[in-house]
Amino acid sequence: MQKKSLKFAALVLAASLSGCGLLPEKVDETKDWPAAKLYSEARDELSSGNYEKAIQYFEKLESRYPFGTYAQQAQMEIAYANYRQGDQAQALAAVERFIKLHPNHPNVDYMYYLRGLINFNDNTGFFDFLSKQDPSERDPKAAHEAFDSFKQLAERFPDSKYAKDAIARMKYLVNAMARHEVHVASYYYRRGAYVAAANRAQVAVNEYRDAPVIEEALTIMVKSYDALGLTDLRDDTERVLKANFPNSAFFKGTVAQSGPWWKIW
Known about the structure:
Layout: H1 2-22, H2 35-47, H3 51-64, H4 69-85, H5 88-101, H6 108-120, H7 141-156, H8 163-190, H9 194-207, H10 214-228, H11 231-244, H12 249-252
Helix pairs in contact: 2-3, 3-4, 4-5, 5-6, 6-7, 7-8, 8-9, 8-10, 9-10, 10-11
């Protein structure tokens, strides 16, 4: 009985293996496409929002035609398609690869700009405009990286068509990063950690002098020094606050309330 069972199992296995060989192989429709057609089809898929298929076509294009402008353009398109698809890691990897391979490419300024955008719009990090959470409460790592990318673009390619927008985003990021420091300082103050509060507010004052939130940073410093009994530091900081913000709500005994600071669009 056992021998019959083994023979039957062997027959079933042999039949399944032979059946697999009878199945037609999957045909690659792009096999004989020239570079121009492959690029055109990839662009069509990208325009239609079919990012995954577009990436597949661009990767085939780069693999089959590794030399020339089509391959270089495909590398840029792969970075952009991954960015639009929301794959931040792959997008950044593609950007870094292109910059490393083609540092003197006529469109390398766009890749610096794209790198900034990828970090600027990192929906798992500093910015999340769909939630009610103040983005200053989030980890500012992506904001710093976005700022550095935009700064490199503005400094290396001042005549780039992307430079103006990069500079505008840098100004926004400065305010955002300053607000993050003040948020942390306020957090420490509310919990009675006055030394930490004063120190964190001082960081905002030193590093982001022109940010609108500096008024609040100075106010936190004044209150923290007062709570610590450091009257000289309190009075010095209060003089700075009054000199720069003579109409500050601090001197009126009120705290101005406004809408969410990050909703500027």
